[in-house]
Amino acid sequence: MSLIKWSPFFEPFDAMDEFFKNVPSGSRSQGLVPAIDVYDKHDSVIIETALPGADPSKVQLSIENDVLSISGSSERKTEVDEKDYYRKEIRSGSFMRQVSLPPGVKEGDAKASFKDGILTITFPKSQTGSPKSIKIDVHHENN
Description:
The protein is mainly beta. It has a domain of 83 residues: Sandwich (Immunoglobulin-like). 6% of the residues lie in helices and 31% in strands.
């Protein structure tokens, strides 16, 4: 049996994200990959991502096999012709991001809000009961 170093910040998709960071942008067929924050509050898990220029009514959220998928598109309408740019780093187009959900969240009770270009998804945690003790019945043989 091999040992795997435990890391509280391990994310199964980190290696894949790192790979796509190093791929030239012209060869990306999937579109933009927005950055995310995932953090724990006392009774919930929060996922936040910045989606500037995205229309919240056109953002799709889905959960399948404990993986949250966020997809949509952002549009940037400008009058400037492509050839007039000295530098163009602000992108628009489709985006997609997936993140594994931590165990113990209530997927069906998730709530999403969009404010100032930030999408926030809140997953309440399942209530964990207090430890229960089990009484052992001891049977004595009568001779």
